[in-house]
Amino acid sequence: MIEEVARLRGFDSIGEAHAIAPQIAGYAPESRVPGERLLTAMADFGYREAITYTFVDPSLQRLLFPETPALALSNPISAELSEMRVSLWPGLIAACRENMRRQQGRVRLFEIGSKFEVTGSALREIDMLAASRPEPAGRSSGAVRASRWISTT
Question: What sign does the dihedral 61-56-53-93 (CA atoms) show?
């Protein structure tokens, strides 16, 4: 609405005025790294961000974390996605497996997301970062370094 009035009267007829409110820099403790910085750093190291469901396959989760209690959903999307994740690893493993099934030669994944901790009747959401490691025992596959075109001219 205001844009229409400004268009009819003319944008040049509106005077410039600086903000009156004081501009105060926010507090950023050194112990907490902003999410954007983590995303950039992981991308710089050759990783791709994966965004997976917070619901996971109970059988895979039990294989990875047999002693950790998980919250079972009363109305799940499917039988394969019927528990809240207790770690980011089940989703990353499934994403890595799917990429390998599609014959991707180099898979480096990371995820910034939430895991869910059940203690008694309380449920706690905890922000996490998980990344595949570029070694045979890790969750990544393919060459350690990406292929690159080299020009000799």
Answer: positive
Count CA atoms within 13 Å of residue 73 on its CB side.
Answer: 17
- pTM, entire model: 0.64
pLDDT (tens digit, 9 = 90+) per residue, 33-69? 777 888 899 989 888 999 999 999 999 999 999 999 9
Tell me how far CA of residue 44 lies from CA of 34, 40, 48, 133, in angstroms: 16, 6, 10, 15
In sequence order, what DSSP letters do the residues of the chain get, joined into one string?
A: -HHHHHHHH-GGGSPP----S---PPP--TTS--HHHHHHHHHHTT-EE----SEE-HHHHHHH-TTS---B-SS-SSGGG-EE-SSSHHHHHHHHHHHHHTT-S-B-EEEEEEEEEEETTEEEEEEEEEE--SSTTSS-BS-SS--------
> Cβ distance 61 to 90 under 8 Å?
yes
pLDDT at 138: 44
Q: Is 117 exposed, middle or buried (0-12, 13-18, 19+ CB in 10 A)?
A: middle
Q: Which residue has the tokens 């994966």?
A: 50
